[in-house]
Give the backbone structure.
Amino acid sequence: MSQDGLLKGFVDTRCGRRRLPLSLAALVCAILLAPMSGSAQETPAGFVAEIFVGILHPEATVVLSAQVDGQIASFPFEIGDPVKTGDLVAQIDDRVASIQRDYARTVWQNTTASELADLAIASARSELYRIKELGGSVPRVEYEKANHALSAAELRKEQEVARRRLAELELLIRERLVERYRVLSAIDGVVARKFTHEGEYVKAAEPVVELIAVDTLLASVAIPSEHLAELVIGRPAVCTTDNLPGESFEGKLLRRGPQIDATSRTIVIQVELDNRLGKLMPGMRVEVRFGPLSE
């Protein structure tokens, strides 16, 4: 089959019903276009000379969406800025929600199970006890009146407690609503993309910011299936790239795909690379060599 035919087959596979986590067509294109004579960089001692070509991907990609409708008030970070988990990456205008929260707090603070209610209950109980002690010398109507006063005082106390609880729940709801106007980072990473700008109106569930985790990168590589037995999880690997001549980056085989592609007869694997120094970038084309298998 011609090279064009192979490429068409890979593109057709990618357009099928299942979407792979990486572009198999792009990986195979990179392999076909790679120089067949090997890399100009030397193979590290103990590593297999055979080269496989892959593409770097972030360890995690997170798209943060708006939880409420509103206008974007601010973006504290710009594209490329590092963020930590919990950092505010976008603020939706929450002025109305904040006013409603403050009002709910005032209502809650002023809705208290007052000491007067407790005093009223104590007084009613004391009066009822006095009447009982007097026995038959007190008219029946006085006894019923004291008993009713105690029941009414206890009811007022229960109502005050219920109103305070409702006010507390209303405050909790308003506080949670205000929090939903804040778009917070879910990972340690960098800002890769902003889908909107300050002043623009967004609706709930619309994407706002994309973050990527780059302290660890994954080299996705399509390996011919005849190498399946050699693809042992944890096998050491070293990667080089034309973007950083003379440098190499050690890693290990992290995972391999669950199946062999029926058209290309390749299996997709991922090599994990430590990128805490930040030299590597997602999208880089890398050449991967594997170290010896463990005994």
Notes: The first strand starts at residue 52 and ends at 65. The chain has five helices and twelve strands.
